[in-house]
């Protein structure tokens, strides 16, 4: 937290056009305290309600460094996303907290459209019809 205004200093950046949102915060708390706040349910539930999570257990965790959760929206279409919390000591004796939030719901993927035929070459079919 910034001592001047009591609010965390943060910087938001977007890695790529359709990529995750990344928020960086410099906090006046030591990394061990921030780790407890993001990883232990009794503390985490105070600022990240269990209802926001698709599951109470993390998807992955590197103790003292990073924890990743799956989240689900409360309202239709109930999109799912993943949020990763990374911590490291910062230059002023506190903690750098990076929050990476990316939508992972399959319904939003931009996969190429599937073929509308059975894979046969339409031009070959047309040629075969002329020959008959």
Describe the structure.
The chain is globular. The chain has helices spanning 31-39, 41-47, 122-131, and strands spanning 9-14, 21-27, 60-62, 66-72, 80-89, 95-103. The protein has a domain at 22-105: 2-Layer Sandwich (Alpha-D-Glucose-1,6-Bisphosphate, Chain A, domain 4). With 132 residues, the protein is of the alpha+beta class. The protein has 3 helices and 6 strands, in the order ββααββββα. Residues 1-6 and 12-17 have low confidence and may be disordered. A 6-stranded antiparallel beta sheet has the order 1-2-6-5-4-3, covered by helices on one side.
Map the helices and strands.
Layout: E1 9-14, E2 21-27, H1 31-39, H2 41-47, E3 60-62, E4 66-72, E5 80-89, E6 95-103, H3 122-131
Antiparallel strand pairs: 1-2, 2-6, 3-4, 4-5, 5-6
Helix pairs in contact: 1-2
pLDDT under 50 segments (min length 5)? Answer: 1-6, 12-17
Termini Cα gap: 80 Å
Share in β-strands: 25-35%
Average predicted confidence as pLDDT: 79
The biggest beta sheet is recorded as: 6 strands, antiparallel
Secondary-structure element sequence?
EEHHEEEEH
Query: Over all CA atoms, what is the radius of gyration?
Result: 23 Å
Shape: globular
Structural class: alpha+beta
Number of strands: 6
């Amino acid at each position: 937290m910034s001592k001047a205004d009591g609010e965390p200093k943060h910087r938001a950046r977007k890695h790529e056009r359709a990529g995750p949102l990344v928020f960086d915060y410099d906090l006046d708390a030591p990394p061990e305290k921030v780790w407890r706040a993001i990883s232990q349910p009794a503390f985490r539930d105070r600022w990240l309600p269990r209802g926001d999570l698709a599951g109470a257990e993390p998807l992955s965790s590197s103790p003292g460094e990073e924890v990743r959760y799956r989240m689900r929206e409360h309202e239709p279409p109930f999109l799912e996303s993943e949020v990763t919390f990374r911590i490291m000591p910062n230059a002023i004796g506190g903690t750098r907290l990076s929050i990476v939030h990316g939508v992972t719901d399959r319904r939003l993927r931009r996969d190429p459209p599937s073929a509308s035929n059975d894979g046969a070459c339409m031009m070959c079919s047309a040629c075969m019809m002329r020959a008959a």
